[in-house]
Amino acid sequence: MGLHAAKVLETLKAMGITHIVWLPDSETGFLYEAITADGSVKLVPVCREGEALAVAAGLWVGGAKPLVLIQNTGLFESGDSIRGLGLDVGLPVVMVIGYRGWLGGRPMTDSAGIYTEPILKAWGINYHLVETDHDLPKILAAQDEALKTSRPVAVLIGQEYEK
Amino acid sequence: MMDPIETLKTLSEHRTDQVVVSTMVALRVWSLVSKRPELDLPLVGCMGKASSLGLGVALARPDRQVWIIDGDGSLLMNLGSLVTIGNLSPPNLIHFVYNNSVYETTGGQPVPGAGRTDFVGLARAAGYLQAFRFDDLETLSLRLPKVLKLPGPTLVDLHVGRATALGPLPPARRTAEALRTVKAALSP
Question: Chain B partners of A51 at a C-beta cutoff of 8 Å?
């Protein structure tokens, strides 16, 4: 059982997501195709991931329901935005993060993977691993958690999206 | 070179119901002259992200004009946001640059490219529909009403001197409070 782009999009729509603030990672090609073909969720492409949380904060202020979609390397890049416009302001947003380097629980060799969970832990950001369609309810739960706790919550995508 | 307080006072005189995102020294000057603090989003810290925060509000609320009062040093930290904004092209976004050529908060060290960087040229090249530079208060007063009516995104490069009187830097929690105040004010 894989992780299918159409199923992911179905989940995001069920969450009422209006905007996906994103910078594509190496695993999101099919998801991009699904989102653009569907057209009901707006894509907000940024040039650098550090912009993403700040744009999401502005969207939230304006009454939209944004979601951030980046790679773990972009999470590292976004440090000050996550601190200042995620944690400090209590932004209830789900960050869907491509887990580059994840080897299904086997020891990782890619430092992008190795540092991901320790950094989320250091920030006190809760996270959930999604590897198959079966795990998709975790994204819905992450949104509830973000709203209840007024904090960003991360979803780590451990599998390449399939068509 | 324009007086910073008089410059932002001129902006404030023409403000009606715009949401205003301000940051760093511009935030401290703006807080002295703003007449609608309930629609102000002061970004304390998180330097460089005012343009991104303002963009988000502008995208969510196309019916409302959003002003960003950025700094030159702040914008230099997030130059890619010019392309992000130019690409999405929100017509309701006006991006002011409080351009004093220095990092005033840290004691006045020159920013890279001080006096050489052409923010008007950068904005145009990034896809902004309008870009203007002002270094004279009289001209700013005269032309601002028309500039504000043009379809954006618009960049307005304001060449100002050093501030002599500044309000205090608000605590960081002020940003969190303001996000909620403005969110409530914008709710239908």
Answer: 49, 52, 78, 80-81, 84
